[in-house]
Specification:
Number of helices of chain A: 8
Shape of chain A: globular
CATH topology of the largest domain in chain A: Rossmann fold
Distance between the termini of chain A: 48 Å
CATH architecture of the largest domain in chain A: 3-Layer(aba) Sandwich
Order of helices and strands of chain A: HEHHEHEHEEEHEHEEH
Strand order of the largest sheet of chain A: 5-6-4-3-7-8-9
CATH superfamily of the largest domain in chain A: NAD(P)-binding Rossmann-like Domain
Oligomer: homodimer
Number of strands of chain A: 9
Chain lengths: ~210, ~210
């Protein structure tokens, strides 16, 4: 059985996302059942970890048979809220915001970019991936018109807090933040900060140790 | 004392990166010493986890005094290989590659983008952030000329394996991969795959559960 959402760690959730990708891959290959051992071997995971993570959500493989791929995939999509599409508004259409507006993962299977805003007058009315860039002053309208539930922050660090506050005031419930800064959060508006550099530092650690 | 690099998990390394950011922030504020409790409170971390992570690398705070900020920051920079600059080559200068070429975190404190290649003839000789885009066929030259040790893969999924193989053949030692696919790796050329969508799925889990 699942406890309250707050008890689930981001690390567990990130593993669920990875299991989901693996299950889609298996389903595309026509595979109907998979054991935790097979899943672990194919995708370089830990069988014990898989069983523990899934049991936390009431999913238990059958001994000698494993998990039913289609069922488990649907269950994970349900857990991650991917059954209905969640609409996103991107605040800041510099290079990164422009890249994300057209990013396949932000426009498929549960997510869709429905609005773009920027504070630079030179960018207003530009078209990116079928959407027209609107002024930041119109953010509340953009969120309402697009029925957006999440914001994506791709503004300079100095503008990040004000942009978060504006998204919160406009009624979004979650913000994916690419600015390398810690935001003061409004109750009920969760933030996930993504640091694109962290993967480089992880690789750097291993290189520093390699002979 | 530190064990072999292979025993350190990516999760631990990502926490070291976060501690490093926190220590820089403290140092900028003129703070000279910090306890694990203070660090934990200020940056929403776990004091026990901090002590455990740092002890793994031979760093122990002094009871009642804590850690010396400048020393610990230098030590973490050393561990993450940030003391010398690691040069990067970006393969694929679509929207995301273009964004990363100019991304501050890829061009500061230990990292620098020194080369850009693309297979699209229309993009060759374009200038992005002071660098000229060169043909993928010249990748080995670009890596050698720039003394690059890491590659960044921002090509379409279908081109990812061939681009990884070309980077490995050109002599890079690590690859940061943004293509949503699992690469067959060459011995000695580590891969870190970054999935920009995973943060959205994490937020989606909590939204699906919110009332």
């Amino acid at each position: 059985m699942m406890g309250p959402a707050e008890e689930v760690s981001p690390l567990t959730l990130n593993r669920l996302s990875f299991y989901l990708r693996s299950l889609r891959h298996l389903q595309e290959q026509g595979i109907k059942r998979v054991s935790s051992q097979e899943l672990a071997q194919r995708y370089h995971l830990s069988a014990t970890q898989i069983r523990k993570d899934l049991a936390q959500f009431g999913e238990f493989g059958i001994r000698g048979v494993g998990y039913e791929v289609r069922h488990l995939r649907e269950r994970l999509r349900h857990l991650l809220g991917l059954e209905r599409t969640q609409n996103l508004v991107i605040v800041g259409v510099g290079r990164l915001g422009t890249a994300l507006a057209a990013y396949p993962g932000f426009n498929s299977d549960g997510f869709r970019v429905v609005g773009l805003v920027d504070s630079d007058p030179a960018k207003i009315d530009r078209r990116i991936g079928g959407l027209r860039v609107r002024p930041t002053a119109e953010l509340a309208d953009v969120v309402r018109d697009g029925n957006a539930i999440m914001g994506v922050l791709t503004v300079p660090t100095a503008a990040a807090q004000a942009s978060y506050d504006a998204l919160a005031a406009a009624g979004v419930r979650a913000v994916l933040n690419f600015a390398p800064t810690q935001l003061r959060t409004t109750r009920g508006v969760r933030v996930k900060t993504v640091d694109l550099r962290i993967g480089l530092e992880e690789l750097g650690f291993f290189l520093a140790r390699a002979t």
